[in-house]
Amino acid sequence: MAAALGEFLSSPPAGIPAEVFEAFGRTVKTDDGILPPCVFIEAVEQSSVAISITDTNAKILYANQAFEKLTGYKPEDVVGKNQSILSYKVTPIKVYQDLWAHLLDKVSWNGVLINKRKDGQRYLADLTVAPVLDQNGQTIYYLALHRDVTEVHELERKVRNQKVLIESVVDAAPVVMALLNNEGKVLLDNQDYKKLMGDLRGVEPANFFLESLSEVIEYDRKLPCDQRKGFINREIGLKNSQGIESRWFNCSGVWVNEKNITADNYFTDTDECCLLLAANEITQQKRQQNQIKTNAMRALMAEQQLVHGMRETLSGAIYQLQAPLNMASAVVSMMERRQGKNNDVNAFQSALMEVIRSGEQVLESLQQSLPPEDREAVALVNMNEVIKDVIDLSIHRLLEKSVLVDWEPESELPYINGRCYALRTLFKQLLDNAIDAIDEPGCTRREIYIQTLHVDDAVEVVIRDTGPGIPLNKRHSVFEPFYSDWQHIKGRPGMGLTIAMEMVQKHYGTIEIDPHYHTGCSIRIRLPINPSEFLGQEES
Ligand code: FAD
């Protein structure tokens, strides 16, 4: 039970006004006895916090030693003066109005005032003022606790300024930037990051970056930050809704230490490892590179087509010449078997043999003038890239003919062992055929569907068009040399599918026309991923 100080001490100790002595002079009973009032007085007096006690008009009645230390005013300088003696006269009036409104409501107030010391030096005072009530609940005094927060404020401002500065630099940087914590959560980002998030319709770009970079990011939580390796200039592609890479970024990442600021870690000083990710969009450069690559491919293919054309023509000539020569040889051997004495017959036989000889010479020189076949090395080939290249190569033709291409690549397609240029020529031939088919008279829909699939130990490519299709009885003939049945194109040697078949066979694959597809032509090419026949052949 508390009792008035006056019950234990008859008069206030030196320096303590009588009214303060009475108001605060209460004792506290504890289990160990009664704490004498002088303990409270000494506690206030010796407190390291500046304390003042005023009447209800803010007239100072008491100030402790720490108050003197803080303000430079001795008790005798301020007792009897208003607390406004400390005012630097720049604190907005509404702050004082708020202070007094609280006090008049008998509610404590806390805030910051701009004060001045006795020597005129300005400082920021964190002030807490509490009303002291009498037994009837009336305010009789105010108790004020003062703290100099000038330095804390300066530090806070410095940190805030630095944050603003860093944020503006990071924001202005023409790269996508984000600081991610160990859980991949974004702690800080910049304008370009936010813009990318807008482009991705609200999907967090960090998810895409972390997924694409999962192989290079060391997310081992047990590993200290300084032991985690960063990465630099990693090129990654952002896929569009069709699964095709449509935007590219050059990414770099560095691990940074962040001191843990939670109270739990006050004594342990633990760090949190954060990943600072910077991604530079290189879509423009990549498109230019792709354009250059496509142009180079186009030039190379044109050259290859020229060689193929020559081979086709010469092979055609050889093929055409071979038939009459074979027939002549057959006639000669028939004559030899009959062994006639007839001179006319013998003369005819010799003449025929002369024809055969000169025919064979022509054949030989034709065969020698056949341009050599490309001996391309076997390498790992991504069929999605091959198909994409082929579509790129044919883009002008597709646009010119208003053909809609529905391209459905398998997202996780294994690489196959093959010859990249040959495969590109193969699929270019098939796509050209599909476009030609759509151009045939009577076609109303102008669509080509291309799909890649991973089936068992092979990669399959399906090319489907909305042309007239290939009738059942012609499905074998179309692969034969010099077979051409286009209605609208004349003068083609008819070697396209023959060469395509040859290339598929060179990859130990199969090519077939889907017998169940009737609204056009559907060709399925199956290429084994790693044909054992390639083993031992040179790989690059
Ligand atoms: P004032 O006219 O004194 O006050 C400005 C406004 O405050 C007035 O317009 C009025 O709305 C309100 N106000 C003033 N006195 C009263 C009152 N008695 N009742 C109701 N409303 C009133 N000020 C400082 O600058 N620095 C301090 O460190 C500081 N410490 C204080 C400690 C205590 C315990 C108390 C009670 C007040 C303290 N003050 C302090 C406030 C101080 O008393 C003055 O109100 C303030 O300094 C402004 O003084 P002024 O002469 O410019 O204007």
Binned, the helix content reads 25-40%
What's the Cα radius of gyration? 47 Å
Q: Which class of secondary structure composition applies to the elements?
A: alpha+beta
In this structure, how is the largest beta sheet organized? 5 strands, antiparallel
Contiguous low-pLDDT stretches (5 residues minimum) are: 1-9
The share of residues in extended strands comes to 15-25%
Q: Tally the helices.
A: 13
Terminus-to-terminus distance: 95 Å
Each distinct ligand: flavin-adenine dinucleotide
Mean pLDDT score, rounded?
85
Strand tally, please? 20
Write down the overall geometry: rod-shaped
Explain what you see.
There is one protein chain. The protein is an alpha+beta fold. Helix content is 39%, strand content 25%. The protein is built from 13 helices and 20 strands. The strands form five sheets. A five-stranded antiparallel sheet has the order 5-4-8-7-6, sandwiched between helices. A hairpin with a 5-residue loop joins β6 (109-116) and β7 (122-133). α9 packs antiparallel against α10, α11 runs parallel beside α12 and α12 packs antiparallel against α13 (496-506). The longest helix has 56 residues, at 283-338. It starts with a strand and ends in a 12-residue tail after the last strand. Mean pLDDT is 85; it is low at 1-9. Bound molecules: flavin-adenine dinucleotide.
